[in-house]
């Protein structure tokens, strides 16, 4: 199962790098319900698949897996921590600054943004939704319930 999940994760990791960064600075964060993670083989297997996908892309990865029992969820992620060569470092820094600015505009009490609210492409909610869709596309005949079904129990109706 880890190999199959790795195949699903590689394109998601590739797309997580900022545009123009030549594959550097990517990261993927998933927030899955515990039942959802268990149906995929468990959090440890998912973390191994994330690491394997990152290594396949040549990343020096930093991975994490945190159980959040009070929410009934598990937070999984992997980040490319390679040193970014000068031509791409500025691109990665600008992308990270834009992400932080966009998130700050969503905080309570933040001044309304001057421009329309940006779509936060790299957020865990969006990346989790993309992961669910990729798994559902890859395994449409799977007898398991759709992976997207459980997330509605956890307040993510707007994904």
Structure, briefly:
The chain has 159 residues and is an alpha+beta fold. Helices cover 47% and strands 14% of the residues.
Apparent shape: globular
Q: For the largest sheet, list the strands in their spatial order.
A: 1-3-2
Briefly note the structural class of the backbone: alpha+beta
Count the helices. How many? 6
Q: Unreliable segments (pLDDT under 50, ≥5 consecutive)?
A: 149-159
Mean pLDDT score = 82
**Major sheet:** 3 strands, antiparallel
Task: Record keyword descriptors for this entry.
three-stranded antiparallel sheet; globular; alpha+beta
Overview of the structural elements:
- With 159 residues, this protein is α+β, with helices and mostly antiparallel strands.
- The chain is built from six helices and three strands; from the N terminus they run αβααββααα.
- It has a three-stranded antiparallel β-sheet.
- Strand 2 and strand 3 (73-80) form a beta hairpin.
- Helix 1 packs across helix 3 (43-56).
- The radius of gyration is 16 Å and the shape is globular.
- The model is unreliable at 149-159 (pLDDT under 50).
Secondary-structure map:
Blueprint: H1 2-16, E1 27-33, H2 34-39, H3 43-56, E2 61-68, E3 73-80, H4 86-104, H5 124-138, H6 147-151
Antiparallel strand pairs: 1-3, 2-3
């Amino acid at each position: 199962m880890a190999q199959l999940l790795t195949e699903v994760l590689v394109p998601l990791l590739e797309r997580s790098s900022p545009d123009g960064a030549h594959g550097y600075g990517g990261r993927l964060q998933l927030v899955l319900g515990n039942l959802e993670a268990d149906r995929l083989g468990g959090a440890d297997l998912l973390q191994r698949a994330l690491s394997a996908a990152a290594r396949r892309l040549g990343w020096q990865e930093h991975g994490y897996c945190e159980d959040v029992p009070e929410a009934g969820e598990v937070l999984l992620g992997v980040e490319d921590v390679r040193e970014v060569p000068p031509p791409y470092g500025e691109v990665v820094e600008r992308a990270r600054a834009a992400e932080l600015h966009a998130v700050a505009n969503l905080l309570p009490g933040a001044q309304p943004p001057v421009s329309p609210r940006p779509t936060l492409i790299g957020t865990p909610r969006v990346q989790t939704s993309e992961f669910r869709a990729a798994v559902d596309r890859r395994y449409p005949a799977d007898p398991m319930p759709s992976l997207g079904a459980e997330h509605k129990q956890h307040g993510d109706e707007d994904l």
